[in-house]
Description:
The chain is α/β, with parallel strands linked by helices. The chain contains 15 helices and 8 strands.
Amino acid sequence: MSTVVSHSTTEGHGILPSTQSPITSKLHFFNSVTGDGKQIPTYRVLDGVGNLIEGAELPQIDRELARKIYENMVLLPTMDNLLYNIQRQGKISFYMTAYGEEATIIGTAAALAPDDEVLGQYREMGVLLWRGWGIDAAMSQCFGNEDDMSSKGRQMPVHWGSPKYHFHTISSPLATQIPQAAGVAYALRRDPLRRGKNCAAVYFGEGAASEGDFHAGMLFASTIPSPTIFVARNNGFAISTPSSEQYFGDGIAARGAGYGMDTIRVDGNDVLAVLAATREARRRCVDNSRGVLIEAMTYRVGHHSTSDDSFAYRPRQEVEDRKRIDNPIARFRLFLHSQGWWSDDEEEALKAQLKSDVMRAFKRAEGMKRHELKEMFTDVYGGEEPANITEQRAELAELLKKYGGAWEPWKAELKKFKDNGESLVQAGAKAK
Ligand SMILES: Cc1ncc(C[n+]2csc(CCOP(=O)(O)OP(=O)(O)O)c2C)c(N)n1
Ligand SMILES: [Mg+2]
């Protein structure tokens, strides 16, 4: 028996304001976007041992691309191991790894155009490395040395950024990048040279998706509309809060339809699924100039950051099991083996090569000085320098003149800068 009343019958009941919604006589509440009360399914291509699952189609990929993806995936833990350890030795102040999320990060990076605008949360160094930024640049950012062009040593480690590689600088307050990305995408749509060509891709954790900024960004991108790919990395935790305590609905994907956005949930540990889903998301996004949402289901294998000990809130065994049972790198390596695109010898050689590259980059970055101290005050804002910056520079110059050569802690600190702070003292004297 149909409970939906046909249009002709509806007419007698008047016209509903501001909706084409059909009339029903059934008193029915709903709480599922699938219509059958089940959870949104997760798109997957490879099983846990690197074989295609039944019915899955292999995304377009050749030996060269597959190997590039794999090499970039392996590079991430190589970098993470070293940077995590040198933080422990006090050589850098802070670090965050991408352990366990290699497929989500590299799979999405590989599906974007190199000049699509990327706004990350912080675990997305792999997107920059994929684009050719280089491990020296990453290392220098973490050390904040004179080679750090992300922010000239004025940001914490992992606050990457590069105009050349279309990667907007990370900012610590969670979710600010989400509405910014919708705005960036809107600007792309208004630019005749980039309209229909580029999109903005924004990464955020499922925790950040609890912020109001997530909703502002989603609403903006769907109503204005603007070509934005929203990539939710659902890695199970927001520091110590498990995702089960972060939402009551069906994850982040369930929210996409609420904004009228094409949405997919994907196995974030299956790099081929992430690649295929992001390619299709990008096609829809750019062709229709609209927002698209991807929820990548993964697991944060590492601690939240170097300031966290996750074994205080999750069992060590759970992490060990995840690493073993569902390792995105091992899964893809088995696929490469099955295609005859990778060998054990190549694995050995890659690991040795990456280790030595990363070690060399570390030594280089560690040996470098910081930018000239006066850079602390440059390009904080675009355009004319505001008076407060000029005042602050002059004040520091005065203090340096007074104490810089006399007080041991300042003397020692100044030696770390390229010019021992001298140009700042001169610039301050000139400004007086
Ligand atoms: C507005 C704001 N609130 C809180 C924090 C502290 N904080 C930093 S990261 C984080 C958890 C984020 O979790 P999620 O978005 O899931 O990302 P993940 O770390 O899992 O990649 C929190 C609470 C912050 N940086 N900004
Ligand atoms: Mg998270």
